[in-house]
Amino acid sequence: MKNVLTIAGSDSSGGAGIQADLKTFAAHGVFGMSVITAVTAQNTQGVFAVQDITPAIIARQIDAVFDDIAVDAVKIGMVSQAATIQAIAAKLKEYAAPNIIVDPVMVSSKGDYHLLSPDAENLLIHELLPQAILVTPNIPEAEVIAGKTIRTLPDMEAAAKTIWELGPHNVLIKGGHLAGDSTDILYDGTAFAYFRARRIATKNTHGTGCTLSSAIAANLGRGLSVAEAVAAAKEYITTAIEHSLSLGKGAGPTHHFYSLYKRAGMLEE
Length: 269
Ligand SMILES: Nc1ncnc2c1ncn2[C@@H]1O[C@H](COP(=O)(O)OP(=O)(O)O)[C@@H](O)[C@H]1O
Ligand SMILES: Cc1ncc(COP(=O)(O)O)c(N)n1
Prior knowledge:
- By secondary structure, the chain is of the alpha/beta class.
- It is built from nine helices and nine strands.
- It has one domain: Ribokinase (UDP-N-acetylmuramoyl-L-alanine:D-glutamate ligase, 3-Layer(aba) Sandwich).
- The strands form two sheets. The chain has a six-stranded mixed beta sheet with strand order 3-2-1-4-5-6. The protein has a three-stranded antiparallel beta sheet with strand order 7-8-9, with helices on both faces.
- A hairpin with a 4-residue loop joins β8 and β9.
- The protein starts with a strand and ends in a 5-residue tail after the last helix.
- The model has no long low-confidence stretch (mean pLDDT 96).
- Bound molecules: adenosine-5'-diphosphate and (4-amino-2-methylpyrimidin-5-yl)methyl dihydrogen phosphate.
- It comes from Sporomusa acidovorans (strain ATCC 49682 / DSM 3132 / Mol).
- InterPro entries: HMP/HMP-P_kinase_dom (IPR004399), PM/HMP-P_kinase-1 (IPR013749), Ribokinase-like (IPR029056).
């Protein structure tokens, strides 16, 4: 069994953050572990409050995991504050953590709540990105990191090149926020690879970014290459969105276990 760690925030409604990450790990047959950076009060309709965990407790959680268990991959999601990022960056360096994937969560999907304080953006860019095997911004996050407007696939390619210069080994810009097919673009410093899926007409996309980055982390932990890990994760998120759940009054969560349940004959029709 491979062991994969998520360092992220808790989503009380279970669709994004730590909860999405652990479900995704379970669906991939890896052992999931979690370091919680913040507790959010949120549901399908929005984020209503955030309590940050202190950097000291975040550091102790990371120590507790790495002192005891071999970690095969690490996914970083919501990191909230500048001091949180400093604590995480220092600890991951200390333990020479492998396969670090940074999902630069900045604003909640509804665009109404900053999950990363604006003064922490620079630290995320300069402390975490250089340690990452892969960074997975959505379009608005890529615009902030690259300092460029993105409206087209060539714009995504240009932004990916700019972000790659900041130090991550690979950049995946996700196209969920553009019109048309949902095309994600991977850049490894030399060439671009396209991962396309038909756009699914649904409002239930809460936690899609968290789920995709966790699926990639699980796949890297299991020994796949970055391109293989992204390709398999793209199939996984597309199925999860296709069978997403109309829970709550807003943007519902994706279905992490659709393929597993189908094989086991456990689906309620
Ligand atoms: N309506 C959709 N149909 C198909 N794929 C989607 C849809 N919305 C998002 N995706 C895919 O889900 C993943 C997460 O993308 P995105 O929504 O851009 O990230 P985030 O949740 O971080 O904002 C990407 O692979 C993206 O292409
Ligand atoms: C705790 C937490 N972390 C991350 C997200 C982003 O979610 P998405 O994957 O929809 O961008 C969120 N809404 N809450």
